[in-house]
């Protein structure tokens, strides 16, 4: 009787182990879920401009970090062949804003001989909600503008497309020192740039329950 019980127990353990192995193999060979590009950009001379009329981003140089990340990603993914350096359009905007009203988006693009402007308007940018808990979150409104026609190419069904970025599992001490705060702000700017660029190309989004940053 004891022998029979041991055999039954062994069989149950073997079956459970087999199920776990099969599930693991299935997880490994199943392709990651993917997100299709929300909008397909034309392969024309393009520039990325990040605007912050609400002064939500500090320091303001992080605007360029976001724009550079979008530009670099679109070039590396070969989405667009020619992208104007964001520094050029930022310089035009800064010079004009000192003496005049802000230039229209199409006029900004024309000033650097771009055919299309990827216009990013910052809505929020913060590292904590209560001053103690790290919760880095940024959001922006996104538009794609034709310079020649001075009209919105994307989105067509609403005024702008909303993009949000967050940093997960941030250690509390990172909002306690100035040096860590600067690093964290730069990481959040990079993450926002990454999220914006992904609007324009197919990408893996990771599996349910994963916290990996899939590229």
Concise summary:
With 215 residues, this protein is of the alpha+beta class. It is 39% helix and 21% strand. The chain has one domain: ABC-type transport auxiliary lipoprotein component (Rossmann fold, 3-Layer(aba) Sandwich), CATH 3.40.50.
Characteristics:
Rossmann fold; alpha+beta; globular; 215 residues
Describe the structure in your own words.
With 215 residues, the chain is an alpha+beta fold. The chain has a single domain, classed as ABC-type transport auxiliary lipoprotein component (Rossmann fold). Helices cover 39% and strands 21% of the residues. The protein contains five helices and seven strands; from the N terminus they run H-E-E-H-H-H-E-E-E-E-H-E. The protein has helices at 2-29, 62-76, 86-99, 105-111, 178-197, and strands at 34-35, 46-51, 116-128, 134-146, 151-154, 161-166, 203-204. The strands form two sheets. Strands 2, 3, 4, 5 and 6 form a five-stranded mixed β-sheet that branches. Strands 1-7 form a two-stranded antiparallel sheet. Helix 2 (62-76) runs parallel beside helix 5. The model is unreliable at 4-28 and 208-215 (pLDDT under 50).
Oligomeric state of the chains in view:
single chain
Overall pLDDT confidence: 85
What structural category arises from helix and sheet content?
alpha+beta
Q: Which range best describes the helical content: under 10%, 10-25%, 25-40%, 40-55%, 55-70% or over 70%?
A: 25-40%
Provide a count of the helices.
Answer: 5
- Distance between the terminal alpha carbons, to the nearest Å? 57 Å
How does the major sheet shape up?
5 strands, mixed
Gross morphology is globular
Q: Tell me the CATH architecture.
A: 3-Layer(aba) Sandwich
The percentage of residues in β strands lies in: 15-25%
Order of helices and strands: HEEHHHEEEEHE
**CATH fold assignment:** Rossmann fold
- Overall tally of domains: 1
